[in-house]
Amino acid sequence: MLRGNYFGEVTQPGSTQTGDVTVDTAFIVDVEAGYYLSDDLELNIGVNNLFDTYPQSAVITDAPNVGQFDYVIPYPNFSPYGFQGRYVYGELTYRF
């Protein structure tokens, strides 16, 4: 399976309009492949966010009051595709 997701521009509101953060558009690709090892056992492997796309950092480094915690999670919380990057997984399914 090959899946593409388009995410439009999103604005994370700040406490004032100058504090608003805009998350740009993005196209995220996910891939999954499966194989039947037997009639009852299936193996799937996949990758979400294949190209490891991140939103632009929300930290304004030249701001006068950049706090130490601004760098813990530097990405906007409103990002529709998250801020954790690529995710690889495996799945083993047994049917009885």
Structural summary, described in words:
The chain is mainly β and 96 residues long. Helix content is 0%, strand content 41%. It contains no helices and 6 strands. The protein has a 4-stranded antiparallel β-sheet, with no helix packed on it. A two-stranded antiparallel ribbon has the order 2-3. It is elongated. The model has no long low-confidence stretch (mean pLDDT 87).
Shape: elongated
The separation of the N and C termini measures 25 Å
Widest beta sheet: strand line-up = 1-4-5-6
Radius of gyration: 19 Å
Question: What is the β-strand count?
Answer: 6
Strand content: 35-45%
> Would you identify the regions where 5 or more consecutive residues have pLDDT less than 50?
none
Fraction of residues in helices? Answer: under 10%
How many H/I helical runs? 0
Main pleated-sheet profile: 4 strands, antiparallel
SSE succession: EEEEEE
Global mean pLDDT = 87
What structural class is derived from the secondary structure elements? mainly beta
